[in-house]
Design goal:
By secondary structure, the chain is an all-alpha fold. 65% of the residues lie in helices and 0% in strands. Helix 2 crosses helix 4. The relative contact order is 0.11.
């Protein structure tokens, strides 16, 4: 039985490589952008300067996923209710 070095496992088995691409692509395009939308929606008015800078950096980094969800999410502030 020959041992395959860890770095070559994806070259030997393409299913591992494809599944890694699907998992990383899903994280990049779906999971992290939705988490960023959730975070910004809940903490918009109470974020500090450094937190806001960090979140804006993540928005820049994950911009393609943010663009995918932007037409479907409504993040506008609630208006004042008339009494």
């Amino acid at each position: 039985m020959s041992l395959i070095p860890f770095g070559l496992i994806g070259a030997v088995n393409p299913i591992i490589t494809l599944s890694a691409y699907v998992v990383l692509g899903g994280m990049y395009l779906l999971v992290v952008p939705l988490f960023l939308f959730y975070w910004m929606n809940n903490r918009w008015n109470i974020m500090g300067k450094l937190e806001r800078l960090f979140i804006y950096g993540l928005v820049f980094l994950f911009f393609p996923g943010m663009v995918l969800f932007a037409p479907f999410l409504n993040l506008r502030m609630n208006g004042k209710e008339e009494s």
